[in-house]
Amino acid sequence: MSADHQTSGLGFVGQSVKRVEDQRLLTGNGRYVADINPPGVLHAAFVRSPFPHATIDRINVSAARRAPGVVAVMTAAEINAITNPFPPFLMLDGMYTPLFWALSDDRVRHIGDPVALVLAESRHLAEDAAELVEVDYTALEPVASIADALRPTSRQVWPKADGNLLYDSSTEYGDVDAVFAAADRVITERLSCQRQSNQPMETRGTVIEVDPRTGHLTVHSATQTSHVLRWVLAALTEKRSMGSSIAAFARNKDRRTAFIAGARSFMATNKDSLGNQDNSGARSQFRKDRSFPIHMQRIGLGLLAKDDYPTVLAQDIGGGFGAKGSVHREDVALAAAAIALGRSVKWIEDRVENLTDGGHAREEDLTVSIAVDHDGTMRGLKVDLIVDQGAYPGFPVGAGFTTQIMQVMFPGSYRFEAFGMRSRVVATNKGKYVAYRGPWANETWARERMVDIVARALRMSPVEVRLRNMIGESEMPTHMITGPTIDETMSVRKTLERALQVVDLDAFERERAEAAEQGRHLGIGFACYHEAAPGPPDYMDSVNAGSDALTAEVARATIEADGSVVVYTSQMPHGQSHETTYSQVAADELGVSIDDVKVVWGDTRRTPFSLIGTGGSRGGPLGGGAIKRSSREVRRMLIEEAARMLEASVDDIEIVGGNIHVAGVPSRGLTFAEVAGAVTATDPSAHPFDATVTYNGKGDGGWSCATHVCFVDIDLDTGKVAIPRYVVVEDCGPIINPAIVDGQVRGGVAQGIGAVLYESSIYDESANLQATTYMDYLIPTTMEIPDIEIHHIETLSPGENDFRGVGEGGMIGAPAAITNAIEDALAGRGARVTTQYLPPTTILELAGVIRPD
Amino acid sequence: MKIPAFSYHRPESLDEALGLLRDHGDDAKVLAGGQSLLPIMALRLGRPEHLIDIGRLPGLASITVDGRGKVIIGALVRHAAAEGSTDIAGHAPLVSEALPHVGHTAIRTRGTVCGSIAHADPAAELPAVALATDAIMVAESSDGVRHIRASDFFEGYLQTALRPDELLTEVRFPPWPDNTGAAVSEVSRRHGDFAMMGVACTISVADEITAAALSFFGADSIPIRATEAEQSLVGRQPDGDAFDDAAKIVMSTLQPGADLHASAAHRRHLAGVVTRRALAEATSRIGAMA
């Protein structure tokens, strides 16, 4: 046991133990995908469209093929011939999700759309040759904005869709018209959020090794979801006739048996949710695209027939923020190229590619109406949401599913008598839409912005309006009007009340008055939210009937013959410190040091299957819950054997510091190795103790909550916004590692500051992307991020597993708190903040210092 | 974002370097710190066939002050070295004022003063400093030496009076006048970014303002002096009224454009702000420098 990791006897959970990852990562010994260099690997560069919207008339690759060091130049003609299109997934009733291919063949749909793949002896040579690929394009009218997309005459991005409106759905909870008619006033505002980009420090990257003897693919990738990547690559690279698939499946008895067993197990695990499965989405998809069922069946049968699925290995990853939760078109093109050439291939995305096609998010317009009484009681809520999905949906989760989460979460922590929401998704000629840390976060931004707008209209304080409408403990349990249960873990009110103790509003008002005399403009902004991390048992079904299966998380724990503890997770750490926190959880369950625990992740041969990987703040609650349960199970097995050896009852056995003994008799204890050795002594082939547990959080789940308070000091000479103080009061239940939780909160707030003050993936009116380098896409640095003051409340959940998620919350709360503070600072000048992005020019325009050009 | 192939030359003497420039001129670029050139090449926005790395040339890394107080900065003087130079702080204080604004520490550790001036980014600080102080650029070629005044040096966006066969071997800052203060004021989106608007300013006061320089960066396609505003200050007391009047003239004469980071109106507004701030700051420094 090292000095860093002494336990006080109270266990490791709850302590800021040092990250076990740091020795490796901070000394430059991380192993990232760019560090993988198989012998003879070919380096890839993609030829990408310089047009936002155009037909591809002709591609001439002959000059590129002759260029030095080039081994192959492949276009859609070669790649798509041996791959299947990306199929729609999580289909929603009425939603059109286009089928799309690894490379574009007849049409490009955004700047950076990949049309060819060059493989050469170095990335330099590949880029040189990529410039020699001649593509004749005929430009088409671009669809550059939501307004363009909704114009009936605009050119269709997807010809099989109904115009560029891919989804249009309305839902009402309660009698919206009656409540709006009965309320004293209705306050409406149109809010809009700019396109942003996730921007991990490490760009995307994939290396595919081909075993020359067997053709087996080993895929190293910066992915948040190694199993999904494995299955999607298996599915999309198996292109064969359905008849041949059926014949192959029928011939392969092992595969058949394994499939049936797997299907039975999945159905048994997810019986309830499968019964609720809603197939209307698939039906509406079929109505729009008749080729859809053919591709789906071909893919499904191909998966059954396929002998050998790729192995995915993912190790250290430099961030993702959701963008690496998608399987990307480039991955499929690379796998197809590796198969076709029988050579290993490597692609490390550069920053221009990443800003262009690595994933965009959050470009949404929201018209929000709140029906309110004069006393500040908010009674009704109406939302009209339009999402600019860009050209291609993220796979497997596009914008449609995100609108469902936004809908369920929109009312937030407030009582509403009625809520109506219309959600639309449009296609434009922009980069693809992916999940970005709290993908639904604009519900919090828009709602919390509106609460302030309501307060100002009623001449009330924003805090007073929040307190008047916010559900409190005395009302629990209750339900959100959209369905999910509100129990005591929805502690938003407690976080707000604590925040009001932490920040002295009277002192702030005095300071504001003094500053005003010096010509400085101070403001304060609050934002409150709860998020499903993982949410109550009825949460996922409120979002989308049947999607509950997505919460299941499997973990495995073993005790090896040498007594070491190994836990296997399907989580895909990429900055969240899972190795440390899972070691803490397993160590406490087993009574050992965290140094005795090894965490295995990212290797699809060894880790349990997951439909998600890392995302949705699930690492703590679901991943951690599964680790806890599998560790507990393996402890039970260990104690059973130890009790036999010690001739004692299992109830009398305890484990302290790795010593297994009868309570009160530590001197006659056994080590893990001795007990494990006893098993292998009788049967050397036995795996001493081995437990795999599925955990879906049901009954144990709950909400993560926070109140953010942002203070701003605005310089109306320059338009620059300083943040002298930023306070977060958060409640994610009992904390596994406070330092790591604080790091997650701070990182999220930093991205929220970026969202409001710096970051914009802006396109011009012709759909040309303007921000393709870090000169133009500005990310806040340490110089722009203030100290962030964090206070914790640790509300227990009614269930047995108390861990709740915290990865996304910082980013969910920050944009609302910051924009509210800015409006507060400029309210005296009549400013109304309706955009999330507030660069200095906009600040001065809002304050009336300058006029728009 | 990989740099396309080029021929790399690393001359050991100035003559050899000038010979290479004579032979390859139009197709060659001089490599010193590489902080602007290499990203441009990686983005494939520029693709010189020859890079002439002057890093080994002897005698170009010195900062000297001559007997009359003229400061001479050689082609291989890094920003960081200039930033730490007491000679520059004492005799060319406007340069010292500007350097902390140039990029970040890592950039200043490699980037050179002369490289920044030769690159002539209109949003960069040092070209504006050269213009404000009437610096002399020393251009050497195998044909001889030319001394180019700053006012003749900057010709257009990233374009200077340097001929393709010439190397900027040094920049000379004239002796610092008595009773003169210096300040650089700029506003950028983030710490270390190119300025949305900035000014390099000097002001000389003896009972009243005797001279002033207001040299703007981020305002046009080249660094630009606000001569009308400068003249308006001469003969007046160095006070807020005079500075406000100068700022008004600046705002009415500069015609900055819009880009992603600031609108034209915002830039015009900032020109007034940095004028007032720089003049006040420069005035407050007069005593400190005496």
Q: Could you give the topology of this structure?
A:
The complex is a heterodimer of chains A (853) and B (290).
Chain A: H1 22-26, E1 42-48, E2 54-60, H2 62-66, E3 70-75, H3 76-79, E4 107-108, E5 114-120, H4 123-130, E6 134-139, H5 146-150, E7 165-173, H6 176-182, E8 185-193, E9 196-197, E10 205-210, E11 217-221, H7 226-236, H8 242-251, H9 253-269, H10 271-275, H11 280-288, H12 292-305, E12 311-313, H13 329-341, E13 345-348, H14 351-357, E14 360-361, E15 364-372, E16 378-388, H15 399-409, E17 418-426, H16 442-457, H17 462-469, E18 478-479, E19 485-486, H18 492-502, H19 505-517, E20 521-532, H20 539-543, E21 553-559, E22 565-569, H21 578-590, E23 597-600, H22 619-646, E24 653-656, E25 659-662, E26 670-671, H23 672-682, E27 689-695, E28 703-715, E29 720-731, H24 738-757, E30 789-792, H25 809-826, H26 840-846
Parallel strand pairs in A: 1-13, 11-12, 16-17, 22-23, 29-30
Antiparallel strand pairs in A: 1-5, 2-4, 2-6, 3-5, 7-17, 8-15, 9-14, 10-11, 10-13, 15-16, 18-19, 20-28, 21-22, 21-27, 24-25, 25-26, 28-29
Helix pairs in contact in A: 7-12, 8-12, 16-17, 16-25, 21-22, 22-23, 24-25
Chain B: E1 7-9, H1 14-24, E2 28-31, H2 37-42, E3 50-53, E4 63-65, E5 71-74, H3 79-83, H4 86-91, H5 93-98, H6 105-110, H7 113-119, H8 125-132, E6 136-141, E7 144-149, H9 150-153, E8 154-156, E9 159-160, E10 167-173, E11 180-188, E12 195-206, E13 208-217, E14 224-225, H10 227-233, H11 240-253, H12 264-284, H13 286-289
Parallel strand pairs in B: 1-3, 2-3
Antiparallel strand pairs in B: 4-5, 5-10, 6-7, 6-10, 8-9, 11-12, 12-13, 13-14
